[in-house]
Design goal:
Elements (H helix, E strand, L loop, with lengths): L1 H30 L2 H30 L10 E7 L11 H10 L3 E14 L5 E8 L3 H5 L5 E2 L15 E4 L1 H8 L9 E4 L2 E8 L15 E4 L7 E2 L4 E2 L14 E2 L2 E6 L5 H18 L1 H4 L3 E6 L7 H39 L1 H9 L4 H37 L16 H26 L4 H5 L13 H31 L10 E7 L7 H16 L4 E6 L11 E4 L12 E8 L3 H5 L3 E4 L4 H5 L4 E5 H7 L9 E2 L9 E7 L14 E5 L5 E8 L3 H13 L7 E6 H8 L1 H35 L1 H9 L4 H33 L12 H27 L3 H6 L2
Parallel strand pairs: 3-8, 5-7, 17-22, 19-21
Antiparallel strand pairs: 1-12, 1-13, 2-3, 2-9, 2-12, 4-7, 5-8, 6-7, 10-11, 14-23, 14-24, 15-23, 16-17, 18-21, 19-22, 20-21
Amino acid sequence: MSSAKRRNPVTSGAVSGFMLRDLRLAVRQLLRHPGLASVAVFSVAIGIGLNTTLFSVVNAVLFRGVPIAEPGRLVEIYSSASPDLPHLTTSYPDFLDLAQGADALQGVAAHAFVRGILSAGRPSLVMGEAVTANYFDVLGVRIASGRPFLPQEGAAAGSAPVIVLSHSLWQQQFAGRERITGEAVTISGVSYTVVGVAPAAFRGTFPGVPSDFWVPVTMVESLVFSGMQSTSDQNPGATRLDRRGTRWLFVKGRLGDGRSIDEARAQIDTIFARLREEYPATNQDTHPSVLPARDVRFHPMLDGYVKAASAGLLAAVGLVLLIACANVANLLLARGTARRRELAIRTAIGAGRLTLVRQLLAEALVLAGAGGALGLVIAWSAGHALMALGADVFPIPVSFDFSIDLVVLTFALVASLATAVVFGLLPAMSASKPELVPALKDHVQGDRRSRFGVRDALVVGQLAMSLMLLVCGALLARGLVTARNVDLGFDPRVIASLSFNLQMNGYDLDRAAAMRERAIEAIGAVPGVTAVSTTTRLPLAPDINVTGVIVPGYHTGPDDDTTVDVVSIGAGYLDAAGVPILQGRAISASDVAQQRRVAVVNETMARRLWPAGNAVGGRVYTEGLSSEPYEVIGIARDHKVRSVGEDPQPYLHLPAGPSRAIGLLVRTAGPAEALLPSLRQAVWALEPDVVFTEDVAASAIAATTMAPTEIGAMVVGAFGLVALVLATIGLYGVIAYSVSRRTREVGIRMAIGATRGQVLWLILSQGTGLALAGTIVGGIGAVFAGRLLQSLLYGVSATDPLAFGVAAAILFGVALVANGIPARAATRVDPLLALRAE
């Protein structure tokens, strides 16, 4: 045993010595052929760089955790009255019952997104969270400076104007002042005392949506709620802290020591069963759902889509890496054939096959290492570029950190090592077993190689994968073009949307109503404005408002209803939007002023719920048959409501009620985007402290709905072009090498009378055959890939012939160029020189 222990360091040192010697020799060998090394390193760098860039995005979006203590003990608690939507929010009264009745949970906390106007220099919109006093304790987040909230600071509504600042807001707005605690910060007219600053790493629990501040949940009425909400409570006089049927809080719990999530589920089920019995009016159908927090990244309703999109992009960029690997493998196979004599001499003087394989793999490892290092530089630059681009396609500020951390570095290292094995093993095994006698004589066997060899198979695979990416990019681009030509039912180019919430400015309902009328008048006076009205939602906006409706004669009872999209509008809205009334009349100013129970439905709703054609004069109940119904006074033409690609959906228009949230739809004579600065100034002239929550042209909102397809077309199309470049290099390399090995054959053919055209076709036919095989294989794969994209395609089939034809034409065009260069060179061979080449 002792002697074995003494030999281990020697053996280890010997292995290390062999490895270092192999690596040094590999570097020298590659430096002798800088052209081959440069092409190989470039190919690997592109593959590794794109994969690392995308993985850094996926890591930031899906994998990088929130810095909280013992995340495995954290659970997410949802409640819902519908089995179709089981992961909705919870009311504050229900939360209090949960917090007091589930002893399997060490603590239960709740939070909701809110917005306000920060009065620090120029008023600015800030996003924060209203949280229960134990929020930081339940998460296990330690405040960096100051303290968290005290239990009594969440006891009564409006009683605790205290605030914890985020590290970024502290740095940006308050210059990182050391003694910020105790100072006053004004948000939406309320003065808050700063009690703490959160650690820099903690930006909230919803990835990508950083919180600027945290206030006690009991201060929510002084801010603007901004989040997921459902309601079954018809008690307008109560606050959201009092209404049991108004569900707006996300709830988290921390399991006690030794307690399981099954225990917590059982206790929470018991609590909800009791609530259903005690409060049937609001909780009759409410059921809970408890999930491990580690299984939830954004929200259960979003996570599946995000993971599927991430997997699709990783698969696409993985194809690029495979193409790069095939490219380098082809180069090394060609290089190995050219080194047959050298390897045969090594074998003849005693080098074993393992030694040769090790040396050739060392060369592959050097190439992969250099390519991986350059790929990291590409990924670092791309990550910073992505962060600088921001998130203009999202309705709220979204921020992700795409920096290269230890996880991303590990991925790049593993990818580089795997790449070295993938593209290095086959050439190493092939070249390490030379036929000694022919190799020592330097006999050329290239003329007799099989008509379809390993290098040809690699090129066909490269071309096939390139075609798949090109077809997917073309399908997405075709869908995007089709979507942009869809009739939306209105012209978004001449419509602008201005939204602001006067609650953030301390207005009551009466002052807000007066301000709304003054804003309508002021904007209507701006040159170029042709119409102005109010609305709670612009068509195609990301927020969705739905309600259940009951139509006598169509629905059979109080539990039978139809869910439709609903919008509250002011007088003149349909004219301003450019949506004509087909039957009846529109909502008038007197309807709004007197809050008449009238409604305008669209064609689809009229046709579906009044199939006999008697919609005008019909009745619609939105709050049950015991409430007062709305009378249908008109039918409006259909237009797109949620997305560009949707089929016509029922849409219900109701008169706008009193509100401090002001949404203005402005129709312009020319492009609306050009008038936005003047529209903002018109409002600021009335109230300088207004902060717009939305000030965009409707065309930008329509473009947002197409963002997934547009981004997909750009990314997949770019991957396809990069893959095509790599595949072209591989095809060129194979044909050029083939020409170099067939010099004598070409000379003989030309010496016995072959024309240049015949020689040209001889060479072109080989490359054309490879391109045709790649097109067939890639086309079959593209059919299956296209079906996976069907949900992102607007009016385009997954087997669209134009997309397939364009992609195939591009592939064949590039393949002909890659074939043509070496083929043209072959026609210039001098027969006498070629015959002497051997």
